[in-house]
């Protein structure tokens, strides 16, 4: 009823090719952004620190992988390692040049990750599909090996761990133990919004169309004048950039310190599941995927004991953990059966139905 | 029903759930237990979780808590996963926990800088950051009763004694089988320093976390190198796999030593051939202590425990009891120092610094002879206590040595360098502002 196109006329080409042609969508997006910022002031520290910050970080990493796997059709299992490159680069940069603002280094660290990503993307010209996945798996193992074996990466720290030193922005601590969840959340939110906006412009523009052309049929794309090597490498670089920034945010603004093991193969799979569940080739799907895979278990962990206790069933933390696994697993299968194109496709269908509701004729 | 509405409802539910933290009565002390009964490390994690829980539960059932204050126990399942561990920490933080025990080095590291800000002490019992033994730099972190450097020096000392003096180790080859992570690599600098000074040779056999259960290549190299002794620094399924592989490759088990983490199940996995396997330990096994019998009477027999009856008193179960003993003692001392009943995290930090578990106190607690004495202080958060060697006789652990003192001078050097390093690398690491109690 409220959500309909009637009366909105497009009078220019710019309006016609807008990403959000509907006024309601634009208002909705604005509201979501306002609400997200407002959450910093009304949410408690658990909600911000344990739910929202990781959710945003994983969304960013999913966007990164989505650019590669969803838009360009190149399957990668090296996401965790590329995130690690970002985190280690950020650590090296900010300890070597402490006078430069850390936000600059977080955004710069992505370029290191991009370079490594492009390097490991070189085989993608020759190999495709599962074989490429195996090649990126090599990146995962090799980089992880580097994280353990090169003490220079952690400044010869005996514990072999990364830790977040105190860093400030406008005099307020945003990193290190003294930074409040609120300021960290605001920083992460702003970076994620900016980078999502950038990604949106990339995938909807010429570059994005090149990626999609390569994905849909690389031979045809080549015949149309798209150079496959450059395009694929660009996809690897941009994807790794996003993963790298996400990795830096993960270690320094969420954990506040981490071991190399954070960037293991499980992390790569974790992000890949988010992308698949959320929807390949969709930015909003990246957020949906991160929400389903990361937030749902937390909600279940809180809701399940509350639901079971009225029936006099008190269960231990381990049973809750098993139930979480089972329910999330079942839901993943359910969503994949109901809509193999991911949550983003469900969202699309929902919106189309809503356009004609309540008179579907 | 629109998706938007479902989404809105979900978001609202999330927020509500996040905000609705249960409130606790004033006269109780909230002790969260980070445990892992699921995941690849559950084999080690479950008995520890049972031991930790059962001892504190016993205090609740038998004495009504500590000093007349009930303990509110809550387990949070970490699965030995840093992500979930940090989530656990965030979820318990709002409920005023008096102490947290992460039970994973990976989870401990992110929590160390937060401890002083959130005023929640961390007890990382013989794991975590070894440098945190320095109370003057890490006032909020406790890692008794010994560091890994202490442990390694004890093993070398024991081997040296068996050979008839440390200098007899000259020309020998010592293999070091370790988990390829910060935890396993920590003793290496000390091992190499000792190798240089004494003149033995070191062969490193790193085991990556993903192939803990597949150590074929390491043991193949060991067969080629023929080290005179093998020292293991492993955790979880790595220990059991190592024992099995050692037996299979015919390595003489009486030359195979481990740090304090293997349990009975790990040794059992080697079958009859595992006889002679030795490890360090600092507390007794078995149930022959009044306090543990009270656990059986008040907790296990009443069905409050998740442990199987025959697992009570096993090595890692008792390790959990030791952990809870420290928690309980920290709370008891905090009550004594502050005169308050419902103590806070800040009080328990002071309490931990006042821990003095001497034989008389242990007898009072019903744990006479359970462990060597432990005294913590303002500057010493570790104790650097001696551990003893125990041997697997095919069915159980047998204590085979007196307590072995660590090589304090050597460990001190490592420790000071590491602590200074940590504080330097973390520019702006806060200076200790917490006052020391006179007693400590």
Automatic annotation (TrEMBL), chain A:
It comes from the Bacteria. CDD domains: TM_PBP1_LivM_like. The keyword S-adenosyl-L-methionine does not apply. It is found in: Cell membrane. The chain crosses the membrane at residues 27-48, 55-82, 102-122, 129-152, 185-203, 233-255, 267-284, 291-313, 325-344. It holds the Pfam family BPD_transp_2. Keywords: Cell membrane, Membrane, Transmembrane, Transmembrane helix. It is a multi-pass membrane protein. The keyword NADP does not apply. PANTHER family: ABC TRANSPORTER PERMEASE PROTEIN, HIGH-AFFINITY BRANCHED-CHAIN AMINO ACID TRANSPORT SYSTEM PERMEASE. This is Branched-chain amino acid ABC transporter permease.
UniProtKB/TrEMBL annotation, chain B:
Pfam families: Peripla_BP_6. Residues 1-25 form the signal peptide. Gene3D superfamilies: 3.40.50.2300. The keyword Oxidoreductase does not apply. Keywords: Signal. SUPFAM superfamilies: Periplasmic binding protein-like I (SSF53822). PANTHER family: BLR6548 PROTEIN. This is ABC transporter substrate-binding protein.
């Amino acid at each position: 009823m409220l959500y309909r196109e009637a009366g909105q006329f497009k009078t220019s080409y710019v309006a016609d090719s807008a990403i959000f042609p509907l006024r309601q969508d634009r208002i909705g997006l604005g509201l979501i952004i306002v609400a997200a910022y407002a959450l910093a002031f009304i949410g408690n520290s658990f909600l911000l620190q344990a739910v929202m910050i990781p959710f945003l970080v994983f969304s960013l990493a999913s966007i990164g992988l989505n650019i590669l796997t969803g838009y360009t059709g190149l399957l990668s299992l090296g996401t965790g390692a590329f995130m690690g490159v970002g985190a280690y680069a950020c650590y090296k940069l900010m300890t070597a040049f402490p006078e430069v603002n850390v936000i600059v280094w977080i955004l710069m660290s992505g370029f290191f990750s991009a370079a490594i990503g492009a390097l490991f993307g070189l085989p993608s010209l020759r190999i495709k599909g599962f074989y490429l996945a195996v090649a990126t798996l090599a990146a995962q193992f090799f980089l992880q090996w580097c994280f353990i074996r090169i003490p220079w990466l952690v400044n010869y720290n005996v514990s072999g761990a990364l830790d977040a030193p105190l860093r400030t922005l406008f005099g307020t601590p945003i990193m290190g133990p003294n930074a409040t969840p609120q300021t960290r959340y605001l920083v992460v939110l702003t970076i994620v919004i900016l980078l999502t906006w950038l990604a949106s412009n990339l995938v909807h523009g010429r570059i994005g169309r090149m990626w999609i052309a390569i994905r849909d049929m690389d031979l045809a794309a080549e015949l149309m004048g798209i150079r496959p090597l450059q395009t694929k490498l660009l996809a690897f670089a941009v994807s790794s950039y996003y993963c790298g920034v996400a990795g830096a945010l993960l270690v320094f603004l969420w954990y506040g310190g981490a071991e190399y093991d954070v960037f293991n193969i499980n992390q790569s799979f974790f992000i890949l599941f988010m992308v698949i569940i959320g929807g390949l080739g969709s930015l909003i799907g990246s957020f949906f995927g991160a929400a389903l895979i990361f937030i749902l278990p937390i909600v279940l962990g809180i809701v399940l004991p509350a639901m079971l206790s009225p029936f006099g069933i008190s269960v231990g933390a381990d049973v809750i953990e098993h139930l979480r696994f089972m329910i999330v697993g079942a839901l993943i299968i359910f969503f994949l059966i109901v809509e193999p194109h991911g949550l983003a496709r469900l969202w699309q269908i929902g919106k189309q139905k809503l356009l004609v509701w309540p008179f579907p004729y | 029903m629109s998706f938007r509405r479902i989404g809105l409802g979900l978001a609202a539910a999330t927020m509500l759930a996040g905000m609705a933290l249960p409130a606790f009565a004033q006269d109780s002390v909230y002790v969260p237990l980070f445990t892992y009964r699921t995941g690849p490390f559950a084999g080690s994690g479950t008995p520890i979780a049972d031991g930790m829980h059962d001892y504190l539960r016993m205090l609740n059932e038998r004495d009504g808590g500590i000093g007349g204050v009930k303990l509110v126990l809550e387990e949070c399942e970490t699965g030995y996963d840093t992500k979930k561990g940090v989530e656990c920490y965030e979820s318990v933080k709002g409920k005023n926990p008096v102490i947290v025990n992460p039970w994973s080095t990976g989870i401990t590291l992110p929590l160390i800088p937060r401890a002083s800000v959130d005023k929640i002490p961390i007890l990382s019992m013989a794991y975590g950051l070894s440098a945190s033994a320095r109370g003057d730099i890490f006032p909020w972190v406790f890692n008794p009763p010994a560091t890994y450097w202490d442990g390694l020096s004890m093993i070398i000392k024991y081997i040296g004694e068996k050979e008839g003096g440390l200098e007899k180790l000259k020309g020998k080859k010592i293999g070091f089988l370790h988990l390829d992570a910060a935890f396993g690599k920590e003793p290496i600098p000390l091992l190499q320093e000792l190798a240089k000074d004494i003149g033995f040779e070191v062969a490193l056999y790193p085991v990556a976390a993903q192939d803990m259960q597949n150590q074929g290549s390491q043991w193949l190299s060991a067969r080629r190198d023929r080290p005179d002794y093998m020292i293991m620094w492993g955790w979880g399924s790595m220990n059991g796999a190592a024992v099995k592989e050692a037996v299979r490759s015919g390595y003489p088990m009486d030359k195979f030593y481990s740090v304090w983490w293997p349990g009975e199940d790990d040794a059992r996995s080697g079958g009859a051939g595992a006889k002679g396997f030795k490890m360090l330990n600092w507390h007794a096994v078995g149930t022959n202590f009044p306090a543990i019998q009270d656990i059986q009477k008040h907790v296990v027999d009443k069905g409050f425990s998740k442990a199987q009856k025959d697992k009570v008193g096993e090595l890692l179960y008792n390790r959990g009891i030791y952990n809870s003993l420290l928690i309980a003692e920290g709370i008891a001392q905090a009550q004594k120092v502050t005169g308050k009943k419902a103590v806070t995290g800040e009080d328990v930090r002071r309490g931990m610094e006042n821990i003095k578990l001497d034989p008389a106190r242990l007898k009072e607690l019903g744990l006479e002879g359970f462990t060597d004495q432990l005294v913590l202080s303002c500057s010493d958060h570790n104790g650097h206590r001696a551990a003893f060697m125990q041997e697997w006789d095919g069915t159980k652990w047998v204590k085979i040595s007196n307590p072995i003192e660590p090589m304090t001078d050597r460990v001190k050097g490592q420790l000071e360098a590491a602590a200074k390093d940590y504080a330097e690398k973390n520019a702006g690491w806060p200076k200790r502002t917490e006052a020391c109690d006179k007693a400590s």
